[in-house]
Design a protein that fits this description.
It comes from Actinomadura namibiensis. This is Ribosomal protein S27E. Keywords: Ribonucleoprotein, Ribosomal protein. The protein is an alpha+beta fold and about 120 residues long. It folds into two domains: about 80 residues, no CATH class; about 30 residues. The chain is built from two helices and five strands, in the order E-E-H-E-E-E-H. The protein has a three-stranded antiparallel beta sheet, with no helix packed on it. A two-stranded antiparallel ribbon has the order 1-2. About 15% of the residues are buried.
């Protein structure tokens, strides 16, 4: 899943926890890359909990849950008026790049030559 602000693809961390942050925007789970986290107030673009106002939300199985207070609500998939569209990494060139990334990952995991 790419960063919802700039479209950068997430990579596995060399060690330890990932520097990428999760959030919910327009009832969709999104990721924010480390560069976008430092560039501006990235939490201003995220949905907030209706009960406590936290941005520590998790979207799964059609529900949005607050990790701070535990409030749960049904996810609504229609974007609100004025919402910025999410950045998608779609398109023919990124599909090819993604296919190459997946092939390389499978090769590493399966310890064999380039899949093709």
């Amino acid at each position: 899943m790419p960063c919802f602000r700039c479209g950068a693809r997430q990579t596995d961390p060399a060690g330890g926890a990932s520097p990428w942050k999760r959030g919910v925007r327009a009832d969709h789970q999104v990721l924010v890359c480390p560069l976008c986290q430092t560039a501006h107030d990235w939490t201003a673009d995220l949905d907030r909990c209706e009960d406590c106002g936290s941005t520590a939300l998790l979207c799964r199985l059609g529900e949005v849950e607050c990790r701070d207070c535990g409030h749960t609500r049904e996810a609504v998939r229609e974007p609100a008026d004025g919402d910025r569209p999410l950045v998608h990494s779609g398109g023919p060139s990124s599909d090819t790049a993604l296919a190459e990334e997946v092939a390389a990952a499978l090769s590493r995991v399966l310890r064999r030559g380039v899949v093709g």
